[in-house]
């Protein structure tokens, strides 16, 4: 009996030792795979730098022989990365790449198309969900039209031939007011609350070139960028004064971080420049201006000029000087211009919003001051689209689409700040995810992001640290995933699950469009609601499949 007990105890001890050994080996394997991924990324970056250097020397007439084919090396690194990503997808769904079946055939669909919007007659280039409870989406395209519809029922609520050329961008200023930009060198504001009978433009600002991007900065303030290397910040309350900044490179896309009050610009030289918007000693609104109005849906008229000590609490209409040394220079060619032109009176206001105002500045000539910039990888491919996302848990994401057919997702760097402000020499954003093979094809590919909500996992208290590393965690639900939605190959859109450790797995490809997908956006709601736009003149609405 004693011998049996001793043998049983010995076998249990051997099993426990074997279990701990297996966990230790699994942990070492994970560390080696992570190091391998990092080395592959560094190899790709080094090969890119070498390729750029060799190309530049070649243009100067200097021939440099390299012991290896640099471009073949970079291509092989990308192919290996794609192969590992595909293998990870098959492993996640329990399939084998040798079976010849696609991942979609091994798992049920996560999204289903709920509505197809067919009002446009040419390619749709931009769309924007409304944050109101009315389930509205605004779309613009190559047919010069601006359309507002209910994205669930498909009912058309507002339709206008808004511009003389293609609509390049659209955004909601508030629940009733739309901001549209076009290649006809104009940015316009529209009141869509009056239905299809009200198609009068509320406000129009004329730029120097094709308008590439336009975004709201507040209830009565917006920014726009044109093809002539100029950006403008316009306050519609004071008759259309535009504070215009000239840049060395073309600004292809704009985005705004409302929490940090920073304006982000995606440039054609592959750099994202960040500008602070809290300058305490300047505002665009003038004290002696008797011209102006309020936008429909705004809660209050424009406030009077604030005392100097209160300027720091005023967000709309101010530019920050940083009051100290910053990275980069402030471009000297900043002017205050009047770009307003004709319009209609606003219901509830005493004067027309479209009247022209004087170009007098307040407190000296205004200027932009750059806070910092992000180099989007050493290849410096032109940036075609950027978007900033601020989540409820106070985390930030910066989405960047560039001409090298890649989408990069940056995360806000919490270590860049201390209690007294920003640390010197530390970037505001850290690169987290890289998604290759996005077919930009020389066009603007708009992408969307949705932040999932993850519950706290309950782990047994009997596990130590080493054992927890070896325990397989259950797969995340769709609402727990951080989703990145982009255009994909073969007229599809792809939904990817991006993780903080750098992973990017394609969850599903959304099929059905008859031409290339020009972009996608995701509504900020409890569940991801996706809109995909296409050159087939349609917009498709996708919602999660009910489980």
TrEMBL record:
Compositional bias ranges of the Low complexity kind: 289-298
Keyword Ribonucleoprotein belongs to the record: yes
Pfam entry (one): WD40
Highest taxon in the source lineage: Eukaryota
Positions of the UniProt region annotated as Disordered: 287-329
UniProt keyword Ribonucleoprotein, yes or no: yes
Residues spanning the signal sequence: none
Polar residues biased stretches: 309-321
Pro residues bias (residue ranges): 299-308
Alphabetically ordered keywords of this record: Repeat, Ribonucleoprotein, Ribosomal protein, WD repeat
WD repeats: 160-200, 244-285, 510-542
GO cellular component, one term: transferase complex
SUPFAM superfamilies for the chain: WD40 repeat-like
InterPro entries: WD40/YVTN_repeat-like_dom_sf (IPR015943), WD40_repeat_CS (IPR019775), WD40_repeat_dom_sf (IPR036322), WD40_rpt (IPR001680)
The protein, known as: WD_domain_-_G-beta_repeat_-_putative
Organism of provenance: Leishmania infantum
Lineage, broadest ranks: Eukaryota, Discoba, Euglenozoa, Kinetoplastea, Metakinetoplastina
